[in-house]
Amino acid sequence: MGRMVGHESDNEKCDLYRAEVDPNVLEYREQPHTIEAVIDGNVRRYTPDREDRFADGRIQIVEVKDDFEAEADPDYTLKLEYFAEVYEHLGWSFRLTTREEIKDPATFGTVDHIQRYRRVGFTSAELAAVREIIRPVGTTTIASLSSIFEVRDAALPKLCAMMVARVLTLDLSSRLDPSSIVRLAS
What we know:
Shape: elongated
Structural class: alpha+beta
Largest sheet: 4 strands, mixed
CATH class of the largest domain: Alpha Beta
Number of domains: 2
Strand content: 15-25%
CATH architecture of the largest domain: 3-Layer(aba) Sandwich
Number of helices: 7
Radius of gyration: 19 Å
């Protein structure tokens, strides 16, 4: 997002990493609002952890939990279900995610690796060369893009920075290696 981002837990921070590298998420806001409703005669308030805005115009409310077992806290579950329905009526989606999903090794390793290089710079010439290689065929591999860069060891960090800049995209649930398929972000 190009700014300091607030979070209240390690899980929230790690899920923010995913939002930062997901090319479909154009922007997000942490604790974007508080809504209030009367549920079973009691005033209930809810402040979601994050609101994601997608390239296609969709809005998703994200709730991040360490663990979540609906049966363990039926009152809280009722509250989440109620507000998820409110968001649905607004045309928004609601997603509850837990540490198990966030730190899934198949995804988090890739997200974390890309995140490490988020501030690496790349030139307009490098960007143009990447686009020139990918445009005619639609996809390519990280290995095939490596030849663009003067210093081969700089290729992966620069490509990762392009992913964070939403220039490139890849399947975040796959390992990041030379054979990874890369596309231009839409």
